[in-house]
Amino acid sequence: PIATRVSIQFPGIQFDVYCGRYNSRPDGWTGEGADGYFGNYTYSLPEFGDFFSKKLKDPVFRERVLALRGKRLACFCPIGTPCHVDHIIGWLEEEQAREEGVDLLEASFR
Question: What burial letters (b/e) apply to 83-110, b meaning 16+ CB within 10 Å?
Fold first, then answer.
């Protein structure tokens, strides 16, 4: 898979990169300034999407996002609920499709 979202609500969950809010881990991912967008996670998702899209114009940030390919991305959001990690994974999927020359809209009708 491009990347996988896991919820760390349960002890012992294995993950590669913690992407949740209030992250102080050195391998953490939200140290890029996104923390201000995590109050009520369902309310803040559009704001995070805007932040993320703008931030992708920075080549260093974009490379950090691309480095998340194949990783298990952890957050506290329960699986099945909206999460900012879904934006990250969605962009990674779109980027891979672009690299492979796949039209995602056309492919969804097959």
Answer: bbbbbbbebbbebeeeeeeeeeeeeeee
Look at residue 105 in the predicted model and tell me its pLDDT: 60
Model confidence over 24-72: pLDDT tens digits? 554 445 544 444 444 444 447 777 788 788 888 989 888 888 989 999 9
Looking from the CA of 82 toward its CB, the CA atoms found within 13 Å total: 10
Per DSSP, the residues of 23-63 read ---TT-SGGGTGGGG-SSHHHHHHHHHHHHHHHTTSHHHHH
Q: Enter the pTM of the model.
A: 0.74
Q: Specify the 3-state DSSP secondary structure of 105.
A: helix
**CA dist., res. 44 & res. 84, Å (int):** 9
Which amino acid, 50? D
